[in-house]
TrEMBL record:
The keyword Transmembrane helix does not apply. GO terms for biological process: acceptance of pollen; Golgi to plasma membrane transport; intracellular protein transport; pollen germination; pollen tube growth; vesicle tethering involved in exocytosis. Residues 51-220 form the Exocyst complex component EXOC6/Sec15 N-terminal domain. It is found in: Cytoplasm, Cytosol. Signal peptide: none annotated. Residues 398-752 form the Exocyst complex subunit EXOC6/Sec15 C-terminal domain. PANTHER family: EXOCYST COMPLEX COMPONENT 6, SEC15. One of its GO terms (cellular component) is cytosol. Component of the exocyst complex involved in the docking of exocytic vesicles with fusion sites on the plasma membrane during regulated or polarized secretion. Involved in polarized cell growth and organ morphogenesis. During cytokinesis, involved in cell plate initiation, cell plate maturation and formation of new primary cell wall. This is Exocyst complex component. The lineage of its organism: Eukaryota, Viridiplantae, Streptophyta, Embryophyta, Tracheophyta. The keyword Cytoplasm applies. Its main location: cytoplasm.
Amino acid sequence: MDTKPKRRPVAENGDAGEELVNATLIGNGDDLGPIVRHAFEMGRPEALLHQLRAVVKKKEVEIEELCKTHYEEFILAVDELRGVLVDAEELKGELSSDNFKLQEVGSALLIKLEELLESYSIKKNVTESIKMSNFCVLVLDLCVKCNNHISEGQFYPALKTLDLIEKNHLQNIPVKALRMVIEKTVPVIRLHIEKKVRSQFNEWLVHIRSSGKNIGQTAIGHAASARQRDDEMLECQRKAEEQSVFGLGDFAYMLDVEEIDEDSVLKFDLIPLYRAYHIHTCLGIQEQFREYYYKNRVLQLSSDLQISSAQPFVESYQTFLAQIAGYFIVEDRVLRTAGGLLSADQVKTMWEIAISKMTSVLEEQFSHMDSATHLLLVKDYVTLLGSTLRQFGYEVGPLLEVLDRSRDKYYELLLEECRQQIVNIIASDTYEQMILKKDTDYENNVLAFNLQTSNIMPAFPYIAPFSSMVPDACRIIRSFIKGSVDYLSHGVHSNVYDVVKKYLDKILSDVLNESILNTISSGTIGVSQAMQIAANISVLERSCDFFLRYAAQLCGMPARSVERPQASLNAKVTLRASRDVAYNSLLSLVNSKLDEFMTLTESINWNSEEIAQNGNENMNELIYYLDSIMSTAQQILPLDALFKVGGRALDHISNSIVAAFLSDSVKRFNANAVMGIDNDLKMLESFADEKFHSTGLSEIYKEGSFRGFLIQARQLINLLLSSQPDDFINPVTREKNYNALDCKKVASIYEKFKDSPDGIFGSLSSRNAKQSARKKSMDILKKRLKDFN
């Protein structure tokens, strides 16, 4: 009992303290929330409630005390409050009335407001829907526009539309289903465009390949025209220079350069290629397209480089080369205008492939060719191809080197063809002088090769000094020169003239001259043929100058450069030597024929009792033969050749006369036989003098004559008929009168010589003093000649 009272004050004191604190907090108007929360957290809400009640009681006591203190004032305040309450009631009534009225009016407005708000909501939704619909319509319009572009083949606008849809609108499409459809469709459309463009590009590849031949042929044709213009200009320049050198007047010439835009001339359509490349660039796969283009063009090139075995190369080479030219002309323009579609290295690689294949094909085909004309045609087209492609920057040196390596093959074929032609014209030649009946014949066969001996047009019909083989051979040689220049022109050689001159010498010396020599040595020709061949060679030798000038003209060299002596052809010397061979053959044939007439040992009575008055009949025929030979020679041979032929024939006759005296068949002869031969010799000398003057040789060889070729026979006859033959022993006399005689031959002849003829009156004749003196002189001569020998 006692313990409880003891604890109570403590508790009460504690509660009093808390009450005081709580009262202070309440009086200060502080927040009691933390105290309440703390009480509940401590699990003592009853204590707090007890404390609050205590505070209430305390405050009530304080209020009561305050009221007691201010009772009257409180009464007044209550009265005022009651008045205020009445007013408040009145005000409340009024407010209630006003509220009722307001409610009556506001309910309708609220309904309108709700309707308005609902309308605003609907409007907002409709506006949003319209906006969404418009956006979808815009996107769908773009889709329709893209489809229209695709259907019309306008792929670039279609791609730009796709990019616009994808970048600016796709993610903003409010309708998910539409957005998903478009997202799936855009790649499909891009792939479709790529396939369509690739298909169009493939069609273009086929088209451009089929057009390659025409492109190449057109370009090569322009190159040929340009070459012709250049050649004509060079020829005009050469003529002007020559006329200026020869003082024929002042001439001005200018080079008319016609600028030709190859791109405007060579029209081919690259728009599909540009379009395809641009579309692939827009698709972001330009590198893939570059590889695709390069791969397909290389495949086409490989196909173009294949040679058809079904057609001879000489029939297909133009198509083959034109196709390649067209191919690389296209590639050059693609390189320059396609904006990086091709690289220079790729074009270079393709060209190296082509040049390697072309060189191997040409070398192989050239090795199998058997016609110089075919080889020349191919070579000419190859040089035009080179000239064409060089304008586009391609290195064509290897092609020209192939042509240079085939030069020996070309000349081998050309020389063989010319050899066959020359052999044929020589074989078919009649070795008769050509008869030209009109001026055109003269121009074509004489003037055309500068074979005329006079600038005056002759009267017709004109008998030329040569046979038909000369102009025919000249045509062949002229054709050979033209073929040589054509082959060597526009190649790697700059000294075309020197090469042409070299081979011109070769055909003249090794072909024409050899063929003529073969004919001479064949043994089937007679005197007239040999003489005509000699005359032909003389004309051909003279024509060498024309050939040289013609070669210089075709090579574009001035004529004065070939007029120097050191510039002449070596073939002139060769032909001159062959002419001498022909003369020797002619003289051999003439001498053989003369030997038939000079049968003096058989036709002469070496011990005749009387002197032959009418001469030897064989001698008359011999002179007639000589006259015919020399008359013909006068018409067709140069005067120096005529002098040579006539002189050698007379020399042979002279030697034959001497040989007749030395013949073993002539044992003895007398003076009558010598006098008869003297008469014959006088006839020959008279004929020789007449021919020497009538042929005009006397004007050239003023110190010589035909008679001089008979000097050995004349001196022998003079010695045999001399009254003092022992004068031969005198060196001075011998050198003056008998210098052509050989002492041994004279000794042998005098051993056979009997001064008087045998017969009944032979002894009586010897009694004549004159004859005795002559006989004595002869005996002295014989004795001295024996001692000499």
